[in-house]
Each structure stands twice: as structure tokens, then as C-alpha cells.
Amino acid sequence: MNENLNNKEAVNKLIELVKGIHIGIFCTELTKTPIQSRPMSVEDVDDQGNLWFISSATSNKNFEILKDDQVQLFFANNSSSQYISIYGHATIYRDQEKIDELWNPIAKAWFEEGQRDPNVTIIKVTPSDAYYWDTKDGKIISLLKMAGSALFGNNPDIGVEGKLNL
Question: Which residues contact 80 (CB under 8 A, 6 or more apart)?
């Protein structure tokens, strides 16, 4: 089933999926192959659907964003069969107040001087396009529906997908 969502409903779906998955693949240099990608943990998704990450000023990702701010993010939760692809533009910040807000103990592993480390930056991704896939009833029910469909030859109503018009 196809269900495109608009405005606040689209933002709410994005927030729901990203917060439920939390770690995604962050891709840069989208016009080159191979596309540069790495796993990244989302520190926050705000009410407008912007995604916030902690990153090092000396990382390849930051250098790549300075050359071309277009990014693609992929999130997958295989256990619940939920997926989202987000295209947007990244902005790098050095705002200490925002760093303090987003800081968590795990980030310390990447920065010797903690949240006051001069290399700590924040990346804000502002989505401009997104597409999602989601099961309607959860993975177990969806698997049962697929098995029933295989046995009885009908089309299962197992999920929904659509464009998020943000």
C-alpha cells in the first residue's frame, strides 16, 4: 500500500522512524562513486525533522560536507521491518551550547578533551526529501500474512510505503 504523507504528518513519521532506529548510514559525496558512507548515531531529531549529529572537525565527513552539503541518510530496523531514506543538506556548527545539549558519554570515546574538545562539531541535516517503508502490523504478523498469501495465492496487505513531503 502506498501512503504519501505531508507536512506535520510527514515530519512526525520521520521522527518516529529515526528515533526508533537511532543509527543510520550517513552518505556524502553523492555525485562520486563509490559514495562515501559511514554509520552515525543521531543525537536528536527536532520538531521540524532536522537531524543532529556530533562529528569531528577533522573527519573526512566534515571536509566532504564543506565541499558539497548534499547528504543521504539510510536507516533500517530489520527486526520491525521499518526503513527510511532521507536526502537533505548538512550544515556544520561549533555552537558550544548545542554541543552541551547533545553531548552524551559515548561521544567522549571520540574526543579526548570531552565536550570542550576543539574538534567537536555538530552537523545539522535539514531533510528535503524522504521515503519510508513500514509494516502495518509488525514483523511477526507480516510474516504470517506472507505465509498465508503463499498458501492461498492472494496479495498480502503487509506494509505501507510512501514519500514524506516535508
Answer: 20, 135, 138, 139
Instruction: List, for residues 37-62, the tens digit of each pLDDT value.
Output: 999 999 999 999 999 999 999 999 99
Q: What is the spatial distance between Cα 84 and Cα 70, in angstroms, rounded to a whole number?
A: 17
Alpha carbons 43 and 51: distance in angstroms, whole number: 8
What predicted TM-score, i.e. pTM, was given to this entire model?
A: 0.86
Residue 76 · residue 83 · CB < 8 Å: yes
Q: Evaluate whether 129 touches 86 at the Cβ level (below 8 Å).
A: yes
Q: Dihedral through CA 33, CA 39, CA 45, CA 48, nearest 10?
A: 0
Mean pLDDT throughout 65-79?
95
126/118 Cα distance (integer angstroms): 24
Q: How far is CA 135 from the centre of its chain?
A: 18
% of residues, the chain, pLDDT over 90: 77
Cβ atoms 2, 164 nearer than 8 A: no
Q: Using alpha carbons, list the distances in angstroms from residue 165 to 25, 91, 93, 138.
A: 21, 21, 26, 24
Across the range 59-72, mean pLDDT stands at 98
